[in-house]
Structure formats: structure tokens, C-alpha cells
Design goal:
alpha+beta; 8-stranded mixed beta sheet; 4-stranded antiparallel beta sheet; 15 helices; 39 strands; 26% helix; 28% strand
């Protein structure tokens, strides 16, 4: 087959797959609408079979809806101020989008505003069929056909549907002229995840054609960025597997690259909003409303999704940047860059591929894994039982005895603390969101000084001797809390702080469990008590002090505060640390008078949290970036666990349910030499 014929066939197959994304998208939009995120009575016209999507997908389409809604409001406000006799909106790759019908229904379209949709001819033909089938549901609406131009699928004085491949700008120009489009009128071009499916040459050609032919226009794009970090690789692979790769993404991978692209093409002004920044600007009331709609506990991948989508506005002529974009454009700065650290990646046993779990160092050369979400019995689910893992060989052995499964259960986002006498204490966690474990569970495997051998791991009699017990109730049922072991008057005590509960998204409750008598003591709330949070981290230093870092607030703001609790005096203090990134879903360790924060989710655009180092002598922080990712084995460094072994950090598991891109498990054990971080 010749190269030209192969390319034609590839383009045709890719176009078909791109069209298929429309069908999935409209079902997800309807799911979000039906769940109460926004109102759109016209989505149902284009869906044959309703499906309720997961809460994170509902949220994803909600933020997209809000972003485009803000674009329309900004455009209509601008048209009102300009008082131009007529204007146009041209939706590129419109698919089954219902914006025109919704805007008309709520009487938001300004007078003499034409709305034109462009997509592949088969998509527009199917859309026309759906409209005709449901036309009685649309008041004062009629379609007619313009037989003079076969690319016009349907049209009336205000609304037109064009069946045109966007790569063919000459055909697009010809058809718009047939519609008597005024190329000098203010025109909004809207591209929701459309031009990114085009190869760079074609998308550049389209954007440049618009810039040249529409002197008073705005080009607005909602699309993906940052393809090279862990989440970005998972996202990109998803579209590759679907057969509709994001062809322009790697050419313009960042906010800066996107802005530079439009500036070089002659657009006079250009700015962009990262969806995470956009969401952070929502009112407290709106955030609370969204939180009330779905049972939600997928914060990490929600923030990652928002970190990887931007809304861009480029404009020229009499069209200016809206206020929402202008404020951001004035704050544009070079993206932060930190030195990279090195890591070693080793293939992980399938039993280590999980997230939301717990790992403790049982004895030299042996890890114990508990709970989380992973692969068990050949399906993705919350994991029961315990798993022992030899560090030297990474061989794993499941302990799935009934007494362990019955008492510990299948839980996520719990804590497991290891006491000096070899007792492990399991606290909290959840099975499903808001279904919390409220009993204190303990079990013993070995004395801490015991060297675990291969024979130990494989000996059934040994495994059957494990005792699991309940030792009373939690002080408050929670998950995503922190737990650290401290010494108070020669007794091992466990300090837990914060977390989520069935009634609160985040709490500031702090309790200490004395493991000698299994009695809880609640630490009173003080001025310097950390604010309510979950998914933070704590670690012990100086024997009886703990340091709390980061977390996610009840309003879903990512924190970078550092607090210290002296467990002898039960007094909180704030550690003022400079240079520390906000983060949550990280792990932390004390070593050599420093606090090491490993991974997590941060709020800074274009940055994946690597390792933060707090020097307790200077109260200054140093941030190190993750190494360059291997596209075959991406690492998402959240929902993971870590331990210190032989002056190395060993990081096990991590990942998440990545929006609509599938579930990702880190399938590599990560090892970092501590001495190489200084």
C-alpha cells in the first residue's frame, strides 16, 4: 500500500473513532445533568440509552459545562457593550452539543446572533435526525434544507449545521459564504476537545485561516495539556487505544506553549485558565452544592484531571480578553522548575499493584501490605487479607485466612501502625464512601527483631497462628486521617488527626490512643490546631512530637501548612516553612533532622509533586521534581505508601481511577537513595 493511501486510510479510521467520542461524551453529559450538576433539558434528545456515570466523570463534565458557560456569558457581555448589529458563534467539532438549544431556551442569545455548528457529515446527519424526531419538544424551531450546498445539513435563519471536515478550510470558507456569513462581524469560534484531534499541520491551518479571515474574532479552546507526567501519559494512552490520538498535544504540551502558538499566528491577545484554578474560584456555596450531589472520594484524580485541561481565549480586532481571563493573563509567569532527583524502578508483583492501601516495615527485609484497591480474584476491587513482601526479592505471599478477612475486612484509606512489641494496629478506613470501619483492630505476626525467612513466609502453620483482635472503638470513625506512633511515659501511643467521616468531609479532631490500656484521650482544640483536613501526612520526630503536613481542606483547597504537636504537653504550634509546595495524598518521614514529603497532588500548574525536604534547623524547604517519566511505565505518585529501608525510600503502589481514562496502578516499585537528595 502506498504511503498516501495508507495515510488516507489512517485518517479515515481516526475520524471514525473521533466521531465515536461524541457518543460517549453526550451520555456523560446527560449523566451529570440528571445528577443535578447543571440543567440541560435537551441532552435527552440525543441519547438512546441513559447510563449513570461515576461521580468523578460527572464532576469532569460539570467543570467543562461551567467553563463553556463562562465563555458564553463573557461573549454575550462583550456583545452587549459593543452594540454591534449582529454577531456569530461557530462551534467547531460540535457533535451533539446542545448549547444552542439551551441558550435559546433560557433566552440568552443576543438579537441577530447566528449559531453555526460544524462537524463530520455523518455526525451532523445523525444530529439532524435526532432533532427531527424530537422537534415537538423545541418551541418555535424549524429546520429547512439548502439544496444549493450539500455540506449544509440543515439550516434556518438563526441556526445552521454543516457537515464538513475541519481540515478542509477551503470547503468551510465556501459553505460559510453560501450562508451569507459576514466575516467582519464579531465571531466566537468554540472548540471543545476538537482541534487537538487534528494533526498539527491541519489544526495550525484552521487556526491561522480563522485569524486571517475573521478580523474581529475570538478563538476559545477547551483541551488537554501536560502529556508527559504520569497522569498525562495515562490520558494520552487512553485516546491512543480508542484510535483517536491527541495529535496536537505533544506539539503544544503546556499552557505557555499554547499561548505562544496563538501569539505567533497573529492573535493580538491570548490567555488561558487551568481548570484547577477555575474550580478554586468557585464560591463556597457552589462547592458545597457540588459536594452534596454525589458520594465522592476520588479527589486525587479529580485534581489531576483539572490540572490537565485548560480553557484558552485568543482574540483580535474589537474583541478583547474577558475579565476572568485578563486577571489571569496579568499574573502569567514562567512555570516553576525544580532540580530532579533520581529513582530506580523495579517491576512490582501483582499483589503490590494497588492504591489507598497501607504498608509497614515488619522487620528487616519484609513489608506488610494491607487493604487498598487493586486486583483480587481477577477483578478490580477493594482488597482483603494481608500481603507479605520480601524487599530483596520482591516476592509476595498472600495471607487470606478467614479470621483476618472477617475482622480487618476490605478497607481503603486506613492506617496501620507498628508498635515496638510487634503488634500492628489498624485504625479506620472505609469500605464504600461513607461506610467507615469504627473498631480498633490489632494483630501480631512476629516480634520486631525477628528476621523473616522464605520458610516463614511459606509455612502454613505459622500463618494459621496469626491472631487478630478488636480492642474497642475508634475515638471517631474516619478515613484519610493520619496516624503516628509516639512514646509517652514509656508507652507506645498512636496519635491520629483529621480525616473524613460519614458526617464531615474534613475534621480537625485529634486523639491519642494509649496501647497499654487501649484508652483514648482527645486533644483539645487550640488556636494553632491545624484546620480541618484530610489526606495530609504525619510523622514522628524527637520521640514524642509529630509533624502534620499539607492536606485537603473541607472546601477542597490544597494546603501547605506545617503543624507540630508536642505529645507530652499536648500543645500545638505552627512551623513557618518557606519554599514548600502545597500538597496532599503524600507520605512523610523524619530522617537526619529533616522531614521528607514524598509525592502527592499539588496545586501548581505543570508540576507533579516530587520530594519536598523541610530542614528542621532552618525551617526552609527544598523541592525536587520527579524524574522524566517512562511512557511505558508511568508513575502517579499519590495514594501510595513508602517506608525507609537501608537509607532508601521504598515506594509501593499508587495510582487511581483516572477520570474516564481507566484505572491506573503503578506497576513499578520505586526506590530513592536518601543521600542522593542532598
Amino acid at each position: 500500500m502506498s504511503n498516501s493511501k495508507y495515510q488516507l486510510r489512517f485518517n479515515m479510521e481516526s475520524s471514525i473513532q473521533v466521531q465515536a467520542t461524541n457518543d460517549s461524551s453526550i451520555v456523560s453529559k446527560l449523566s451529570a445533568s440528571k445528577s443535578g450538576y447543571y440543567e440541560d433539558p435537551y441532552l435527552i434528545m440525543f441519547v438512546d440509552r441513559e447510563q449513570k456515570r461515576s461521580s468523578i466523570i460527572n464532576r469532569g463534565y460539570y467543570i467543562r459545562f461551567k467553563a463553556i458557560e463562562m465563555v458564553f456569558e463573557s461573549w454575550f457581555s462583550l456583545m452587549s457593550s459593543l452594540q454591534f448589529p449582529k454577531s456569530q458563534i461557530i462551534s467547531l467539532g460540535a457533535g451533539f452539543d446542545t448549547s444552542y438549544f439551551r441558550l435559546k431556551h433560557y433566552k440568552k442569545l443576543p438579537p441577530n446572533c447566528r449559531y453555526i455548528e460544524v462537524d463530520f457529515f455523518p455526525v451532523m446527519s445523525r444530529k439532524k435526525y435526532c432533532i427531527e424526531k424530537n422537534i415537538s419538544k423545541i418551541s418555535n424551531f424549524e429546520l429547512f434544507f439548502d439544496l444549493a450546498e450539500d455540506k449544509i445539513v440543515a439550516s434556518n435563519e438563526e441556526y445552521s449545521m454543516l457537515g464538513i471536515d475541519l481540515r478542509n478550510t477551503s470547503e468551510l470558507e465556501k459553505t460559510l459564504k453560501c450562508l451569507d456569513v459576514d466575516f467582519t462581524s464579531p465571531t466566537l469560534f468554540l472548540s471543545e476537545c476538537a482541534v487537538t484531534y487534528m494533526d498539527t499541520k491541519s489544526s495550525d491551518g484552521l487556526i491561522k485561516w480563522i485569524q486571517k479571515h475573521f478580523p474581529n474574532s475570538a478563538f476559545v479552546a477547551y483541551e488537554q495539556v501536560y502529556p508527559y507526567d504520569g497522569f498525562g501519559i495515562v490520558m494520552r494512552k487512553h485516546f491512543d487505544i480508542l484510535g483517536c490520538p491527541l495529535k496536537s498535544l505533544t506539539s503544544f504540551p503546556s499552557k505557555e506553549a499554547q499561548l505562544d502558538r496563538y501569539s505567533k499566528m497573529g492573535w493580538s491577545s491570548c490567555s488561558s485558565l487551568l481548570m484547577s484554578d477555575f474550580f478554586n474560584g468557585f464560591s463556597h456555596k457552589e462547592t458545597e452544592r457540588i459536594q452534596s450531589l454525589d458520594v465522592f472520594d476520588e479527589y486525587e484524580m479529580w485534581h489531576e484531571k483539572c490540572h490537565h485541561y485548560i480553557l484558552l481565549w485568543a482574540c483580535q480586532g474589537i474583541i478583547v480578553l474577558p475579565e476572568a481571563f485578563y486577571q489571569k493573563s496579568c499574573q502569567l509567569s514562567k512555570e516553576l522548575r525544580f532540580p530532579q532527583f533520581n529513582w530506580k524502578l523495579t517491576p512490582a508483583n501483582i499483589l503490590c499493584k494497588r492504591f489507598g492501601h497501607q504498608v509497614i516495615l515488619l522487620s528487616p527485609d519484609c513489608l506488610l501490605l494491607s487493604g487498598g484497591f487493586g486486583l483480587q480474584d481477577r477483578k478490580h476491587q477493594r482488597i482483603s487479607g494481608l500481603t507479605l513482601c520480601k524487599i530483596s526479592s520482591l516476592d509476595c505471599f498472600s495471607i487470606c485466612l478467614s479470621n483476618i478477612q472477617d475482622v480487618i475486612g476490605k478497607r481503603m484509606f486506613h492506617t496501620v501502625s507498628y508498635l515496638s512489641d510487634g503488634t500492628a494496629v489498624v485504625l479506620g478506613g472505609r469500605s464504600a464512601p461513607k461506610k467507615v470501619f469504627e473498631k480498633v483492630v490489632t494483630f501480631r505476626l512476629f516480634k520486631q527483631e525477628h528476621q523473616i525467612t522464605e520458610k516463614d513466609l511459606k509455612e502454613n502453620k505459622f500463618l494459621q497462628s496469626i491472631s487478630v483482635e478488636e480492642n474497642g472503638d475508634m475515638c471517631h470513625g474516619s478515613w484519610r486521617h493520619s496516624a503516628s506512633v509516639v512514646k509517652i511515659k514509656d508507652s507506645d501511643c498512636i496519635v491520629i488527626f483529621g480525616g473524613s467521616s460519614a458526617k464531615k468531609i474534613a475534621t480537625d479532631k485529634c486523639c491519642i490512643l494509649n496501647t497499654r490500656d487501649w484508652i483514648w484521650t482527645e486533644v483539645s482544640t487550640q488556636v494553632e490546631t491545624p484546620s480541618p483536613r484530610h489526606s495530609h501526612s504525619s510523622t514522628t520526630f524527637e520521640g514524642s512530637k509529630i509533624v502534620i503536613t499539607g492536606g485537603l481542606s473541607e472546601n477542597e483547597k490544597i494546603l501547605n501548612s506545617v503543624h507540630v504537636l508536642d505529645c507530652q504537653s499536648l500543645k500545638w504550634s505552627v512551623l513557618e516553612v518557606s519554599g514548600l509546595l502545597p500538597r496532599y495524598s503524600h507520605t512523610s518521614h523524619h530522617f537526619d533532622n529533616k522531614i521528607f514529603l514524598i509525592g502527592g497532588i499539588t496545586s501548581t500548574s505543570g508540576i507533579s509533586a516530587g520530594i519536598g525536604i523541610i530542614d528542621l534547623k532552618t525551617n526552609c524547604a527544598t523541592e525536587l521534581s520527579l524524574p522524566e517519566q517512562d511512557p511505558e511505565y508511568p508513575i502517579i505518585l499519590s495514594n501510595h505508601c513508602s517506608v525507609i529501608y537501608n537509607e532508601e525510600f521504598i515506594i509501593v503502589g499508587g495510582g487511581g481511577n483516572c477520570f474516564s481514562f481507566g484505572t491506573h496502578f503503578n506497576d513499578r516499585i520505586v526506590t530513592v537513595k536518601i543521600k542522593d537528595l542532598f
